[in-house]
Each structure stands twice: as C-alpha cells, then as structure tokens.
C-alpha cells in the first residue's frame, strides 16, 4: 500500500513538473513572437495596466477599435472611407468594464510586479488551456484508474480545433472559462463541499457576466439531472440557489451596467430573424462544420441522455447566433470558450463509462479511435483554412529556442517598429500596427482621424496605385489628398510595414532592418 502511495505521489509530481515546463516553454515562446498580436492583445495590456495603476479598466485602443466596429467602418473599403467624414471615438480611453464585466483582471493585475503585461497575459492564457487539458485527462483517470486512456483522451482534447486554435490566439479573459468552467462542472458533479462550489462560482462570476450566465446554468441543471453522487437536499438547494444568483447577476449586469452592441444583435429574436440568418452566406455551412467538429465529444456525452442536456443548451448560442461566422468556425477566437469545457466534461464522463468495464486492449483501441477522429477533424480544419498550418503551431517552440540561443525574436522587431516613430506622436494604423506601437504613441484605427494624424503606419502595399481598369479611386491618391506622402519615411521589411509622414516631412528611403 505504501509503495502504491509513493508511486501515485511520484506520478502526480512528474505530471506537475511536465505541466510547468510545458507552460513556461510555450508562454515564453509565444510572447516572443510579438508580431502576431492584434488590437485585442493591445487592449487587454492597457486594461490590466490601468487596473494595476488603480485607474480602472480603461483602454484608448479599445475606444478606437470598437468605435471602428460599432460605426460599421470595418465592412467598408478604405477607398470609400477616405472619401467620407468619419466620426472618431467620443470618449478615449474607454472603460472596458462597461463592455464586459472583467473584474477578474483586477485580481490578476498585482502580478505585473513580476511580469510585463504582454508576458503575464500570455502566461495566464497558457495556464488556462494547459490546466483544461490536464484536468480532462485527470477526469478520465479518476473514473477509470487507467493511465493510457486518460493520456489519450487528454491529448485528443489538446489537438481539438478549439484548444489547438485558441491557445495560439490573442489573450481574452473569456478563455479562462475553459478551466474555471471545467472545475465548476467537476465540483458540482462529484458533490464537493459547498465552500468549494461557492469559491469556484465567485471566480466564475468575476470573470464576466457571460461566464456567470453559463455557470448559473451549470449550477441549476446539473443537480437536477447530471451528478454522480446523490446530493442531499441541502446541497441540491444550495447549488441551485447559487445558480439562480449567478443568473440574476448576469441579467442585472447586462441590463444595468453593460453597454454592448453585440448583445442586441447576436441571437435571433423571432422566426423572421431566423429566416434572415438562414439566408446569410456561410451561415448554414458554418453551422454544419461547427456540429461536425464537436460531434465526437458530443457523441460521447450522449451515452447517457442526462449528460447531453447541458452541452446542448450551452452550444445553442454558437449554433443559432451570428457575428460573422467566428462563433462557429473561428477556432482562434474566444467565442468557443463557454460551451467547450461543459461539452468536454460530459464527454470525459461518457468516455470513461464506455471503456471502464472493457479489456485493456479494447480500452486502448477505443481511446485511440477518439484521438484519431479528433486529429483528423483538426487536419480537415487546417486544410480548409479555419486553423493555422503546422508552421504556426511550432512557432512558439522555435521562438523559445531563439530566446535561449540569443537569436533575434519578435521583441527585436517590435523595438525596431517603436524606434521608427517619435514617442507621443499621433499614428493611424491597422490592428497589427496598433499592437506593435501601443503605449509608445497615440493611436487610432486607419483612416479615422486622418486629418489630425502625424503618421500612418501601414502595409507597404496598401497605398500602391490601383490596377488599370479599377473603378475605385487609388488609396494612395486619396491619402495624398489628405496631406500625406505615399513615399515611406521608413520601412520595416520583416513585417512589410511602412511609416508615412505628412507631405511636408523630410523624405528618407532609410530601411529599418532587424539586426
């Protein structure tokens, strides 16, 4: 017995060390890329820095980029925008907490004493995804006491499009629900002590109002249909009452605190609006892809009809709603963070039930079948362009190696970009350029505020003349009418970006190179 106890302790220690090393390597490597960051990364860096400084959750980048989206500029060509009178953000910086109630950012912010904002957010996100994968495997091990099926199931979760894409995406607090939502399912399903359930529920509510909504459904529905241990009436009433409180909190925050355009238009509110959605290009096709990608995990949950109720409920918003398709096939986005932990939890329970009474060879065969199925689905999504290719998947590891060897990384590219522009100047850029220059200059989304800007930081090909026969005015010509030169002051060849100044600015053909 003592030998077995020592073996279990050693195994747990080995798993923890492997998990820690994996998180450190991936986080350091991913943060070193830098040039894959977009506007959202810049927003949350400013938000957490603002929270750390005791100024609230404000971001000037959020004000600029959300104004660009809210006014519909994102769907209009630059040629047309440059001929319109564009309206800048009415308030800058803007409070992110009134867009989504990300109170958990304030709890994380003291870690800025030890990390840069960029590295902190990448690390937190990596821990969330790694913890989610780890707990998926541990769930199967808890139910079956079999290591090989547990490892295979955890690996299948790792190579799924949601995890494989999401861990490469930009930081969003919503992604933390992968691990928090899974833990909430765990403590409710196995009937843990009430204080644990309350503590996890508080963290879920602090994440944001959407997490509180899904957490409320977990707490209300699981005690009624889907728990392993028989809850006593006191526990059941406590969990359901706590769930009702989370649902009420989500509703009150949405009605009294949040000012978010998406809540008004994301879900259809009538039969007519459903008919309209069905006519949108890609809506039905993306919905089918969404179901196929999640079919294996959902199928495993279907082993017991009680286990599939909650997954279907939490998947419904992604299936029915529409924000352009990312909610269904945008695997790099955060839109898949809310249903997936619940689906995987019940898939793990179903998977365990499927193999626990079978011979070892059949256990391995069934586990391998699940892994191969998920792997092939991810390969399919890479093939159709919904997931990045293998070169992107290994890029964090390559960057970590570059850091260790002292070779150039994305940090050097970002430093070169910053060196191109005088500090404090007013620059217009697209999202990639905004992320490179954040906190060094004042920024807006090109071409908003072009009459006030000092510089443009854009792709070098963007201002090229239109091909012969094009009916649209050339962007370069329109920019010159706004007083800017279309001859670059400086260039950043590594990313194909150029800095353009006013026509009165001294023109230089200097090229900025990454040493």
Automatic annotation (TrEMBL):
It comes from Silvimonas terrae. InterPro entries: STSV1_Orf64. Pfam families: DUF2079. The keyword rRNA-binding does not apply. This is Glycosyltransferase RgtA/B/C/D-like domain-containing protein. The keyword Manganese does not apply. Keywords: Membrane, Transmembrane, Transmembrane helix. It comes from the Bacteria. The chain crosses the membrane at residues 97-115, 120-141, 147-169, 176-192, 198-225, 237-257, 277-300, 307-326, 338-355, 362-382.
């Amino acid at each position: 017995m003592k030998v077995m106890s020592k073996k279990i302790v050693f195994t747990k220690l080995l798993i923890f060390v492997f998990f820690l090393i994996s998180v450190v390597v991936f986080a350091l490597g991913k943060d070193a890329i830098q040039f894959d960051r977009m506007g959202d990364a810049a927003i949350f860096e400013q938000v957490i820095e603002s929270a750390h400084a005791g100024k609230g959750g404000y971001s000037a980048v959020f004000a600029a980029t959300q104004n660009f989206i809210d006014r519909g500029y994102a769907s209009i060509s630059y040629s047309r925008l440059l001929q319109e009178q564009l309206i800048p953000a009415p308030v800058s910086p803007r409070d992110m907490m009134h867009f989504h109630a990300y109170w958990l950012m304030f709890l994380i912010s003291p870690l800025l004493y030890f990390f840069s904002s960029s590295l902190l957010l990448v690390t937190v996100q990596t821990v969330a995804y790694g913890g989610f994968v780890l707990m998926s495997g541990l769930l199967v091990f808890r139910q079956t006491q079999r290591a090989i099926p547990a490892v295979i199931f955890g690996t299948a979760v790792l190579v799924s499009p949601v995890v494989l894409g999401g861990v490469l995406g930009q930081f969003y607090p919503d992604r933390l629900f992968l691990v928090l939502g899974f833990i909430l399912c765990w403590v409710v399903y196995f009937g843990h002590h009430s204080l644990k359930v309350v503590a996890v529920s508080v963290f879920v509510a602090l994440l944001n109002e959407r997490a509180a909504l899904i957490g409320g459904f977990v707490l209300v529905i699981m005690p009624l249909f889907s728990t392993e241990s028989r809850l006593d009436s006191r526990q059941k009433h406590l969990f359901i009452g706590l769930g009702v409180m989370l649902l009420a909190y989500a509703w009150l925050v949405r009605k009294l605190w949040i000012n978010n355009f998406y809540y008004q238009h994301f879900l259809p509110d009538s039969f007519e609006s459903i008919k309209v959605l069905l006519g949108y290009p890609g809506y039905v096709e993306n919905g089918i892809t969404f179901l196929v990608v999640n079919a294996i995990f959902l199928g495993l949950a279907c082993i017991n009809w009680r286990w599939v109720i909650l997954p279907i409920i939490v998947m419904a918003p992604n299936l029915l709603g529409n924000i352009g398709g990312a909610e269904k096939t945008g695997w790099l986005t955060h839109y898949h963070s809310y249903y997936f932990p619940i689906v995987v939890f019940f898939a793990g329970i179903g998977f365990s039930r499927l193999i626990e009474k079978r011979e070892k060879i059949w256990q391995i065969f069934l586990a391998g079948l699940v892994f191969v199925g998920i792997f092939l689905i991810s390969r399919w999504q890479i093939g159709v362009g919904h997931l990045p290719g293998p070169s992107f998947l290994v890029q964090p590891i390559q960057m970590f190696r570059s850091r260790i060897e002292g070779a150039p990384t994305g940090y050097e590219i970002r430093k070169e970009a910053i060196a191109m522009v005088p500090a404090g100047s007013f620059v217009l850029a697209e999202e990639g350029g905004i992320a490179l220059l954040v906190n060094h200059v004042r920024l807006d989304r090109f071409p908003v505020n072009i009459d006030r800007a000092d510089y443009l930081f854009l792709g070098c090909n963007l201002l090229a003349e239109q091909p012969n026969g094009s009916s649209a005015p050339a962007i370069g010509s329109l920019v010159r009418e706004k007083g800017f030169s279309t001859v670059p002051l400086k260039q950043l060849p590594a990313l194909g970006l150029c800095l353009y100044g006013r026509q009165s600015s001294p023109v230089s053909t200097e090229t900025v190179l990454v040493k």
